[in-house]
Amino acid sequence: MSASTSTHPQDPSRNPWPAVIAAGLATFAVVTTEMLPVGLLTAIAPALGISTGEAGWMMSLPALLAAVFAPLVVLAAGNMNRRRILAALLALLVLANTASALAPSWGWMLAARVLLGLCIGGIWAVAGGLAARLVPAAAVGLATSIIFGGVAAASVLGVPMGALIGEGAGWRWAFGVMALFSLLVLALHLWVMPALPVRSALGLRQFLALRSNRALQTGLVLTLLLVAGHFMAFTFVRPLLLEVSGVDAQWIAALLLAYGLAGMAGNFIAGLAAARRTRLTVAAVALGLLLVPLLWLVFGGSHTGGLALLLFWGLAYGGVSVALMTWMMKAAPQAMEVAAALYVGVFNTGIALGAWAGGQVVDGWGLSAMLWPAAGLAAAALVLATGHAVRQRRMGTR
């Protein structure tokens, strides 16, 4: 961790796993809220009088703001107990979901997504590095997989359940259910999360000290490339399935559930693999995200092809968060909270840029055209990750 935090559980006699699960549920809640428009895009857009491309801003705006808020939350937090910060952010998440459910206009919805951006940046920055503070060193890999399993679980349950609720009761009820769920996560957090004090406040000096960390810089570039490439395409996965693969709308929720299940598997496979071979795991993930859009151009025009590629997509992307966070922890083990804040900032910049650029391409050239730049970004990440892995192997490191 950083100089301001401890890297060991504070009370060895306390069972740390309920707190780890609570942190995983917090990431699940905030990522589900962030991703909810993916499964509801074609329902929200006409209701608020906007185009499908414009609706992509529901993804881009909070992600872009999260990139700014992540380091600012860490800096503004000073030496405040991290347990209190997480509680405050979860309370704001309840408010953001409630505001989205009640949004009477596009402007109101954007305002709610601005508030969500603060929640995303803060929760990810704090929760991302909690594993080493909650569990013994030997269990950090599993704890990290559980915490970031909330991201994959958001795809398994959150996005498809949101789509299912949207189909049956309307998209507003999907946000309303998330408001209630976020409230329950807040209650659990207050019950099981131990105090997370810091010894000293973080400042710009700790951030600037990482300027010469080449491994960290490489990890941040990989994060930007992989996440932007993924969300350039995934923001519009519903239209892809409907218009390119010809899937009936009633099957979207089930298909997104299958995608999420594959993502859960990818999360734990990559989490265990990254603990031993971090760089090669990231390279494998990049290869998977390169193949998905390329193969979709060839085989995505059928029901079977779309389903098979969606499952493979989930498996590949499921490993992104945990593999890259493991990269960050290994690159800056003594400044983990700072590294986590930078990682969250770049990750959400990737979401914002990918969703925005995807919307521009979709509105200008159509859905299939968007798959080419998505593949290009993944290819660049594969080259970078492979090159870094080869160099580090020659140096005898992993």
TrEMBL record:
Recorded superkingdom: Bacteria
Major facilitator superfamily (MFS) profile domain span: 19-393
UniProt topology in membrane: Multi-pass membrane protein
Record-annotated membrane-spanning stretches: 20-45, 57-78, 85-104, 110-132, 139-165, 171-194, 215-237, 249-273, 280-299, 305-328, 340-358, 370-390
Keywords: Cell membrane, Membrane, Transmembrane, Transmembrane helix
Protein's UniProt name: MFS transporter
Example GO molecular function: transmembrane transporter activity
Main location: membrane
InterPro entries (UniProt xref): MFS, MFS_dom, MFS_Efflux_Transporters, MFS_trans_sf
Taxonomic source organism: Comamonas koreensis
Cell compartments where the protein resides: Cell membrane
SUPFAM superfamilies noted in UniProt: MFS general substrate transporter
Pfam families named in the record: MFS_1
GO cellular component annotations of the record: plasma membrane
